[in-house]
Write a structure and sequence with these properties.
With 533 residues, the chain is of the alpha/beta class. The protein folds into 2 domains: 201 residues, Uridine Diphospho-n-acetylenolpyruvylglucosamine Reductase, domain 2 (2-Layer Sandwich), CATH 3.30.43.20; 308 residues, Cytochrome p450 (Orthogonal Bundle). It is built from 16 helices and 15 strands. The strands form 6 sheets. It has a 4-stranded mixed sheet with strand order 6-7-11-8, sandwiched between helices. Strands 1-10-9 form a 3-stranded mixed sheet. It has a two-stranded parallel sheet with strand order 2-5. The termini are far apart.
């Protein structure tokens, strides 16, 4: 463990700076036998460290110095944060905010602290430290919720769902919902999901033929959002919305746009959400309006389905035990959640699954279009196993390269770049003492670009995930976040069926423009041509 002088309370920066008055952990050669305190109780007036927050919504993150006393001697650490040019080895398809995160971790090390107002954050980019964090979080993982989501729930007097719930309510919600969303249970939905996949491929063929021979699909990310919304609604409500119809209804399009607006404004409200609410700023008003639209549309369908299954249960419908149990019928039948809690949970699962999986699939299509040799091998794997039939749940384990391509895409473009936890008690991580109520921010994007974890980190190399690969990655170097197994089944089915019908080719007309809007997204348009096989 790195040695750190313990004569003064120390901060957990791990760069190469050294100070005599107040140790900020700015040295790569420290060593200490005892646990080091990760928080500095008072910043020295002689030497102040200007922390850069990851929550800035501007293009160039500013140094936050509100808690520091001497601006003349502030060490701002901003010389490497310029975003006007992209001068490092990473391609122009990387998000600006994540490039900044890379530079900060390169400067300070794999664990360091930042202060934003009265809140302390500890940023981590080491898989071994991430394992420590996740293995010590206890039975009630404390995930810092999106504050804007919580404020909206409070405004409308709602309890919220899995994405915002904490403690016993989170445990009750998760235990009730998880039974019918486990891998074995999700297999029951595959026949219906395959029909959704067929409809998606038909829609892709229709849209790309309507673009004057470019083979491009306009607003491809939006089309993927429609596909995954149709898939998730089918799994959870056992009904189709018509998201993939030739003429999609205005209500469905409005719902998808509301989701996009909610995530965009949610990112803008990452900092000072309460002040935005108090001042009724434009981002706050748009955030509330989008959530209202989401609830109005989704609650109508969820409540309708609750009424249907409640009637079926009262009249002696199918049992709740065994195979092929309707998801919502099971949830209603357990009587563990109130109607309002069911609605809140289902809607938040929608939010956690549609955008994340659509973004991941969009990035996968993009990467396959750029790497023809990988795509050729993947098509051969799919054709050899499936021929002209669709994949079912038993095929997933027999498509190792497809699985590896998905994992490699999640490594290069994690939909949720940062996975966070809040400490509910004092803990020791990596030899540092982390006080209660500290936010631990695990930067998956930075880990994915660390050559000590992944050789040639900027390269799309799915083979690194195949059995027998010499450089085996740490098991906590990839922590996918999102809708879980039920999304993976839909994603695998869609990708395999698309590749059975089309060859993906990279268009030279434009490139993706990744950005973070709470999630990492490639942008609405993708330079991917769908050429009929």
């Amino acid at each position: 463990m790195a040695m750190i002088s313990t004569s003064q309370t120390t901060d957990c920066h791990t760069s190469t700076h050294s100070t005599s008055q107040n140790n900020d952990c700015h040295t790569s050669t420290h060593s200490t036998p005892e646990t080091t305190d990760c928080h500095t109780s008072n910043q020295s007036s002689q030497n102040t460290d200007c922390y850069t927050s990851t929550h800035s919504t501007s293009q160039n993150n500013d140094c936050h110095t509100s808690t520091h006393s001497t601006p003349e001697t502030t060490d701002c650490h901003t010389s490497t944060h310029s975003t006007s040019q992209n001068t490092d080895c990473h391609t122009s398809t990387q998000s600006t905010s994540q490039l900044n995160a890379l530079r900060r971790h390169q400067e300070y090390g794999k664990i360091f602290r930042e202060q934003f107002g009265s809140q302390y954050n500890v940023l981590v980019s080491d898989p071994a430290l991430m394992e420590e964090i996740l293995r010590t979080e206890g039975k009630f993982p404390s995930r810092p919720p999106y504050e804007s989501w919580v404020l909206y729930s409070n405004l409308r007097h709602r309890r919220g769902g899995l994405m915002t719930a904490q403690n016993e309510y989170w445990k009750k919600s998760r235990s009730t919902l998880a039974v019918r969303l486990r891998p074995k249970a999700v297999c029951d939905y595959v026949p219906g999901m395959n029909q959704v996949c067929e409809d998606f491929v038909e829609r892709i063929a229709y849209l790309k033929d309507d673009t004057g021979g470019t083979h491009l699909v306009p607003h491809l990310l939006n089309e993927l959002n429609k596909f995954f919304m149709e898939t998730i609604v089918f799994v959870m409500l056992n009904k189709r919305l018509g998201c993939l119809d030739k003429n999609v209804s205005g209500q469905v399009n409005g719902f998808i746009q509301a989701i996009a607006t909610m995530f965009l404004t949610g990112h803008q409200l990452m900092v000072f959400a309460r002040f935005h609410q108090m001042l009724r700023t434009r981002p706050w008003r748009d955030h509330v309006k989008s959530w209202d639209q989401i609830y109005e549309f989704a609650a109508q369908h969820v409540n309708q389905r609750i009424d249907e299954v409640s009637t079926e249960l009262e009249t002696g419908g199918p049992p709740l035990e065994g195979e092929h149990v309707d998801f919502l019928k099971y949830v209603v039948g357990t009587r563990q959640l109130t109607r309002e809690e069911i609605v809140d949970n289902v809607i938040e699962v929608f939010m956690g699954g549609i955008d994340t999986t659509a973004n991941a699939t969009a990035f996968l299509f993009y990467l396959l279009s750029k790497h023809e040799s990988v795509q050729t091998r993947l098509v051969a794997e799919i054709d050899s196993l499936l021929g002209k039939r669709q994949a079912d749940s038993s095929d997933l384990q027999q498509l190792p390269l497809l699985k590896a391509c998905v994992k490699e895409t999640l490594r290069l473009f994690p939909p949720i770049p940062i996975n966070a936890r809040t400490t509910t008690e004092d803990v020791a991580i990596g030899g540092y003492h982390i006080p209660k109520n500290t936010i631990l921010m695990m930067n998956l994007y930075v880990v994915s670009r660390d050559e000590t974890v992944f050789p040639e980190p900027d390269e799309f190399r799915p083979d690194r995930w195949l059995r027998g690969e010499e450089t085996s990655a740490h098991p906590f170097s990839l922590i996918p976040f999102g809708f879980g197994t039920r999304s993976c089944v839909g994603e695998f089915g869609a990708v395999s069926l698309v590749l059975q019908h089309f060859r993906l080719q990279k268009s030279d007309l434009f490139d993706i423009k990744p950005s973070v809007r709470t999630q990492l997204t490639p942008g609405p348009e993708l330079p991917v041509m769908f050429v009929q096989r």
